[in-house]
Amino acid sequence: MKIAISGTYSSGKTFTAMVLAYYTGVPRLLSKAIREIMPGLMPGKRLSEVTPEEFLHLMIARHIGRLKSEIKMGNNYVSDGSSLQELLYGEARLVYGINPSVGSLDNAKYENDTSFFARMLKEFSRSIKLHVANTFDVFFHLTHELPITEDGHRPMNTDFRDVVDKRLIEVLNEIGTPYYIVSGSVEKRVKDISDHLNLHPVMSMEEAVKRASLDYKAQDLRLEEERSRSKKQ
């Protein structure tokens, strides 16, 4: 079964997917995040500095990375999000600007690009939605009940995050893939998901959380420009 953990950024997708994988034994799909992709494509740039066309480039690169991992994993895995994430982060930028963390004045320089950006997102959305609908068996959407993690990478804009969260549900309804909303502690989320799918635990919840916590702490969370500098050294 191909399971996707859905939700906007700072909703706990990554940790939930990690714990679920350990608890049930379902393999976790691994693919490079935007902060890992950027140094190779746009050395020295931060996500907050990209232009509309560069965001489209990153969106497609991220989609290709996800696609390769999905093919490699076969028919049984749990995925931290899906390609809908980047598509809808793009859509929400039509409302809040290419850099949602700053005001409209700072985004005004891209005003002439908005129409092109919107048309391209609409076209790309056709293939991305079709791919997601044909790939995943079920989505579990996490309520965004956690505060935004201020890590210098994610947009510090709650309205932006609210729009993305709303659109994720709308698109899941549109493409017809079954989805269920889960909330609460990571233990409750994982128990609810595994019970719904009738997945039997292969270890205790306590052990699953412990192992996932070690994996989470071991992640390389350096920002894009830090990675670029490391490559040059």
From TrEMBL:
User: According to its UniProt record, what is one Pfam family this protein matches?
Assistant: AAA_28
Which domain of life does the protein's organism represent? Bacteria
Q: Where is the NadR/Ttd14 AAA domain?
A: 2-189
Which InterPro entries does the annotation name?
NadR/Ttd14_AAA_dom (IPR038727), P-loop_NTPase (IPR027417)
Q: What is this protein called?
A: AAA family ATPase
Its taxonomic placement starts with: Bacteria, Pseudomonadati, Pseudomonadota, Gammaproteobacteria, Enterobacterales
